[in-house]
Design brief:
This protein has a two-stranded antiparallel ribbon with strand order 1-2. The protein contains 8 helices and 2 strands, in the order ααααββαααα.
């Protein structure tokens, strides 16, 4: 009967979701220290202590307290690890949901632009001035990784609309997310190919201190090549040192 109850107790404790109150661990550890001091004192005062019967009780009590304290400490550590995993998974889920919403917004915006382009009045567009892009509006002049100009505004919009600002810190975008690495610190240490890989295949190289699987792996499908290039050029441009 007692053995069955003890087995059930260990079965419950074996589940890492089971929370062990830290106060109970402190009490068990305290009792262990107090008993050690008491029995040491009695042993020094009484040469006949402990007797054979007392020794069995002492050993059994010490063994029980050591087992409870050790197992409880291990279980507490496992429970805390389980909670951290759950928090990381929840953060990844929220980031994925935000990414889906942002993609829907991008799709709707793209559909609206396509509709506007198809409903023109038939007027012939004016030829762009020398040194001005065909769209009629000047782009930012910083050179990009692809050899052209960097459209900082378009890059910043992509960074925000795709949900990057919710997970990363980037001074130019005014974002302070801490779910992922600080881009002001890590991007200057990367080349254009590494930045692109971190966007389309984030699991290829995981920044130290951040769990794998937190960043969505769908950007390579949701963004076209031009959008990815714009985002890469933008990140490199606004994080250049000096």
């Amino acid at each position: 009967m007692a053995f069955g109850s003890l087995t059930d107790a260990f079965t419950i404790l074996a589940n890492e979701e089971t929370f062990i109150d830290k106060d109970l661990l402190y009490v068990a550890a305290g009792l262990l220290v107090v008993l050690a001091l008491v029995f040491s004192f009695l042993g020094m005062r009484n040469k006949d202590f402990p007797s054979s019967g007392q020794l069995k009780i002492v050993v059994g009590l010490f063994a029980f307290l050591v087992l409870v304290t050790g197992f409880g400490a291990i279980q507490t550590a496992r429970f805390e690890q389980s909670e951290r995993r759950a928090e990381n998974q929840e953060a990844a889920k929220e980031a994925e949901e935000q990414n889906v919403e942002n993609q829907q917004s991008l799709d709707e915006s793209g559909a609206g632009e396509a509709a506007d382009a198809g409903s023109g009045t038939g007027a012939t567009p004016e030829a762009p001035a020398e040194g001005q892009p065909a769209g009629g509006e000047p782009q930012s002049s910083t050179g990009g990784a692809g050899g052209g100009a960097v459209d900082v505004e378009a890059g910043r919009t992509l960074f925000t609309d795709t949900g990057c600002s919710g997970c990363h810190t980037l001074s130019d975008a005014g974002s302070t997310g801490e779910v992922g690495p600080n881009l002001d610190e890590v991007v200057p240490q990367m080349d254009a190919q590494e930045v692109e890989t971190s966007i389309v295949d984030p699991g290829a190289k995981v920044e130290q201190g951040f769990p794998d699987g937190t960043m969505p792996t769908t950007y390579g499908d949701q963004l076209d090549e031009q959008q990815i290039q714009t985002l890469v050029d933008y990140l490199i441009s606004v994080t250049q040192q000096g």
